[in-house]
Fold this protein.
Amino acid sequence: MEVSRYPSTLRHIFDVPNLILCRTPESHHHQQESQDNNNNIDMAIEAWYMDDSGDDQRLPHHKNPRVFVPLSKLAEIGVMYWKLNPSDYENDEELKKIRESRGYNYMDLLDLCPEKVENYEEKLKNFYTEHIHGDEEIRYCLEGSGYFDVRDKDDRWIRIWFKEGDMIVLPAGIYHRFTLDTTNYVKLMRLFVGKPVWTAHNRPQEEHPARKEYAKNFIEKAGVALEAH
Ligand SMILES: CSCCC(=O)C(=O)O
Ligand SMILES: [Fe+2]
Ligand code: NI
């Protein structure tokens, strides 16, 4: 992926160690591991356009036929992605580098199961209500899995399958939601710059400063980026 094909407003997101932008062999230094483990060459995160059926939110909701979304497309809407090794996350140099370069000094863990979370059902319901935040949402999957749904430039849902070792950053102001999948469990790390603010602002939020900034950088400029190339 050539950084130069993105507008300058987007380039800052590439200035980060080990960011994975597309599925090239070079970017997959855990590929061998992954092949050994599950015989799956394509170890990058999977994302796809959702159908609009009203079935259980924990099901995959693929379109028929399936329409996958490449990481380059996620990068265009400001979503960043890394693949890390969660087995020894407390001593992971790669994670340390990312945290330093992005200023993620705050960190905590969230174990999403009814025994450990107060108001479990209510929290899950709120997570799946479409919202934005005034800051980035940074999540690193240590165990289990789930789905982050994000809106593309044309307001269609993209479902991102978030699994062990996946670290993603949703930019401030992007409309999104989260659900567990049918395995019903996730343990994740939450990161933040400074004192954390988890406030969710439910859609519509067109006048929220973070939304305006997001729209300016990632939606309005989308056409310009295409024309320039
Ligand atoms: C379970 S973390 C993801 C849910 C979410 O969107 C949030 O915390 O704001
Ligand atoms: Fe959120
Ligand atoms: Ni790695």
